[in-house]
Specification:
Length: 298
């Protein structure tokens, strides 16, 4: 630890950094963009007159939310031009994140994809209110709306998300069990093993970003998904292995082809079977995976 004293502004920012990063990540779906937002927020924070700031946490949340909204709106064209399906950047998270069920679900691939269907303002309001329990007045100041308008936006966003989110929370143990069955079948090219662990209407979404090969559209049904996986491995003639890890608050696999990182697979589980497979192959979204650095959120 450094012997140099840290100034109050830096101490406060560092104390809330995990919270601010999580807000930005949940709004943007990109760890790289979230880090950029934190840098922009920091530059504005150090210029603030702290003597005039009554609630420093609320002020930091406001800055970060506004910067995230600005970036989210500017990312629209980038998303529209994206090749194939888009998935959030996988985020290696510390094991204790999985123990916080509410937080783990809020950063899960499944919910992050639902948040993508909200408008930027709806997404900001939902994240701040439903995940972090920020007061309506504070949210209003962050998004530039009245508290009454924010209440209406929160209601609409909550109904939208509830209609699309998983029916019930699943324990990390149940997810690990399904993931282990999937890993064994995957490594063995076992078609029947895959069919046994996949739900009948499972959906596979793969993201290659136009750089790596991926299915251009989601693949639906256990039979089609299993055949796509086994057929792909067979055609490639490679050795595929899966290393268990924790991504976005839930058990996941880092897939390696002949020992080299190929992608990350996150899953959604219901009734002990996999209902969603999210496979990120885009190399630009995997730069943090090789570092083995896990984040503690909030």
């Amino acid at each position: 630890m450094s012997d140099h004293p840290t100034d109050p502004a830096t101490e406060t920012f560092l104390a809330h950094r995990n919270l601010l990063f999580t807000i930005a990540y949940e709004m943007l779906g990109s760890a790289a963009d979230a880090e950029d937002v934190l840098q922009e927020s920091w530059l504005r924070w150090v210029k603030a007159d702290l003597a005039q700031v009554q609630d420093q946490r609320a002020y930091l949340i406001r800055i970060t939310t506004r910067q995230s909204l600005n970036r989210l709106r500017s990312m629209k064209l980038r998303r529209e031009a994206y090749v194939g399906s888009w998935l959030p950047e996988p985020l290696l998270t510390a094991p204790d994140v999985a123990e916080d069920v509410e937080l783990a679900e809020s950063v899960s691939m499944a919910l992050m994809l639902v948040l993508e269907t909200l408008s930027p303002t709806e997404r900001a309001v939902f994240v701040l209110r439903e995940v972090f329990d920020v007061g309506y007045d504070e949210i209003a100041a962050a998004v530039g709306k009245s508290a009454a308008a924010v209440r209406q936006i929160a209601y609409r966003a909550r109904r939208h998300v509830e209609a699309r989110r998983p029916r019930e929370a699943v324990s990390s143990g149940e997810t690990r069990a399904a993931l282990e069955s999937f890993r064994r079948a995957l490594e063995g090219g076992d078609l029947q093993g895959l069919l046994d662990v996949l739900a009948p209407e499972v959906v596979l979404v793969s993201d290659g970003g136009g750089v790596k090969q991926a299915a251009p559209r989601p693949i639906i049904s256990a039979g089609k998904v299993a055949r796509f996986i086994v057929g792909g491995i067979g055609k490639a003639g490679v050795v595929l292995t899966g290393d268990p890890t924790v991504v976005n608050g839930s058990p996941a696999l880092v897939l390696r082809v002949d020992g080299e990182i190929d992608g990350v697979v996150a899953i959604q589980v219901e009734d002990a079977r996999i209902t969603g497979l999210y496979y990120v192959r885009n190399p630009q979204k995997l730069t943090r995976i090789g570092s083995e650095t896990s984040l503690t959120l909030r």
